[in-house]
Amino acid sequence: MTPSKTPPDLPPSRSRRRLLGRLAAGGLVASQAAAAGELLRPLEVAPSSRTPGAPVLDHPYGVPSPREADVVRRSARAWPLPGAASSMTPLADLFGTITPNGLVYERHHGGVPDIDSDQHRLAIHGLVRTPKLFTIDDLLRLPAESRIHFLECSGNTGSEWNGPSGLPVQLTHGLLSCCEWTGVRLSTLLEEVGGVSTQGKTNDGPWLLAEGADAAAMTRSLPLHRILDRALVVYAQNGERLRPENGYPLRLIVPGFEGNTNVKWLRRLKVVDAPLQTREETSKYTNLLADGSARQFVFEMDAKSVITRPSPGHRLTTHGYYPISGIAWSGRGTIRKVEVSTDGGASWRLARLDSVARDRALTRFEADWRWDGAPSAILSRATDSTGYVQPTRAALVAARGLNSQYHYNAIQQWRVDASGEVRNA
Ligand SMILES: Nc1nc2c(c(=O)[nH]1)N[C@H]1C(S)=C(S)[C@@H](COP(=O)(O)O)O[C@H]1N2
Ligand SMILES: [Mo]
Question: Which residues belong to any copy of the Moybdenum cofactor oxidoreductase dimerisation domain (predicted)?
Fold first, then answer.
């Protein structure tokens, strides 16, 4: 595979060309034949073995190879206010299920605040017995828990509501990442303040208001009982302290819930009787249906999957074997199965899950495919542990209409034309 036309907002990708060159079936056969000849003689000393390499501490904090310099976060468009914008994870260039910290997508409503961890406090107050202020050191002295969870913006893949956008997977599905988060359980913190002193005034029981210390003061109300067994207040991601853009020094992780409820730069948690109807749950993050009514408090991200290799921008250079690789996830539990189709959805077969299907985390799938050179359409379809099956776009639009901006989780199709070019068409 070699790169085809990249969309106008993407500079041509060197690593993509190289990566897909490696995947090309014909290339593999040719290079194996050449290697067989070479192997009749002793191997030459590698040029890189002739001189000493760079010293230790060349990079006190390690960085990727300069040859991977184009594997970076990108924005789908130029935002009028760069502080209130998003950048997207390069899904086509990633492996396994963990997103490296420097590639975790960013979504900020009011820019990245500069917060001194020593000065930062978390208030836990409202309808609790003994309200308290916590320093980060206080939190580091409480029992810790590490869990791997995906994070997805509810606006992810909104580009596809009106049909194929032509964009590559980074810009259609890249408001998505998966990290190992470390922190303190919300339930432990509520014990620290003596417990909750209300039954709440809704069917969901008491609610929890979470507020960030950024210029947007991002604020959301959450149904406490629905999140208590898994929500974490975290200070670390993938083994190191949070990155500033992901909430340093403290953020809330609500596994499976839409991205915006995972409040960054967390400064307070207030137990309340009922949702507070903040800006984020009235003017934003509601889903307008075809009949004019709006769905409010739609928290869980429904099951979804996408093929990341091959995907738009890739090109199949020869006929033959290609693995189809992608990721699947569900905000309601684990991934039970992923099916793949190479004929536009006429027939489906099971993909292998090549990583453990963890609760509310990315799961990598792979399926074998022999491309015979005919135009094809490749798709993936996830089923989660509740039995829910990822819908077609037609089914999603029939149920929700075209006005709901958020929670687009339909089956995604990539077309492969006779020249091997992969497109979102
Ligand atoms: N305080 C605060 N928290 C926030 C936001 C914000 O702007 N301010 N953005 C939210 C949104 S919309 C998303 S999708 C996620 C993005 O998290 P990330 O930037 O770490 O990927 O953070 C959420 N938490
Ligand atoms: Mo978001």
Answer: 296-412
Confidence of residue 15 (pLDDT cuts 50, 70, 90): very low
**C-alpha 423 to ligand 1 mean position (Å):** 30
- Has this prediction a pTM greater than 0.85? yes
Residues 351 and 290 in one domain: no
List the residue whose alpha carbon is closest to atom 5 of ligand 1: 108
How confident is the model over 193-252, as pLDDT tens digits?
999 999 999 999 999 999 999 999 999 999 999 999 999 999 999 999 999 999 999 999
Measured from the Cβ of residue 81, the count of other Cβ atoms closer than 10 Å reads: 10
Burial of 75 by CB count in 10 Å (0-12 exposed, 13-18 middle, 19+ buried)? middle
Q: What is the C-alpha to C-alpha distance for residues 423 and 260, in angstroms, rounded to an integer?
A: 30
pLDDT-derived band at 5, boundaries 50, 70, 90:
very low
> Among 294, 329, 360, where does a domain finish?
294
* Nearest CA-CA partner of 110 in 200, 214, 213: 214
Instruction: Give the pocket of ligand 1 (CB within 6 Å).
Output: 104-109, 151, 153, 177, 212, 214, 216, 218, 245-246, 259-260, 262-265
How far apart are alpha carbons 252 and 248 in whole angstroms? 11
